[in-house]
Fold this sequence. Notes:
Elements: H1 4-25, H2 35-45, H3 49-67, H4 73-87, H5 96-123, H6 133-142, H7 144-165, H8 169-191
Helix pairs in contact: 1-2, 1-3, 1-8, 2-3, 2-4, 2-7, 3-4, 4-5, 5-6, 5-7
Amino acid sequence: xxxxxxxxxxxxxxxxxxxxxxxxxxxxxxxxxxxxxxxxxxxxxxxxxxxxxxxxxxxxxxxxxxxxxxxxxxxxxxxxxxxxxxxxxxxxxxxxxxxxxxxxxxxxxxxxxxxxxxxxxxxxxxxxxxxxxxxxxxxxxxxxxxxxxxxxxxxxxxxxxxxxxxxxxxxxxxxxxxxxxxxxxxxxxxxx
Length: 192
């Protein structure tokens, strides 16, 4: 049976998947989606590692399949790495304001990571760009407008997600600490 905090985690997980799916289906400029922000947010607030990694990916996968796009593996790897960046801020004793402020540079890092990884693999084996350092540089230069959209999307949706979380954070924090204490007590009792 799920305790209250696990139930909160499940609701958040489903909400992030559904929100990502719907936002991707709505008309938007290239790369201006919530997927990067959802990856950061999931890393911060979904304490189960598998759920945090799957939250951004399942919404993206569902939207890709619904739209008839083939999933691109390196895009999914990028979002898994971005989720790991968000997990850096997973600390139940950290104040909400500090998490928010530290999340802003994480958004910059996530946009840069997505840009570097996806464009490298776009270039690798490409017939559009020569397989030289100059070709790689051209690939990155041509992708700069997409980088800005990724950054704007990450920053905007991260702020939206944090704004939605703000009123629930005190309850979330107390339930998180209670759940951690219960798990610790169970571990101590089984070891004894």
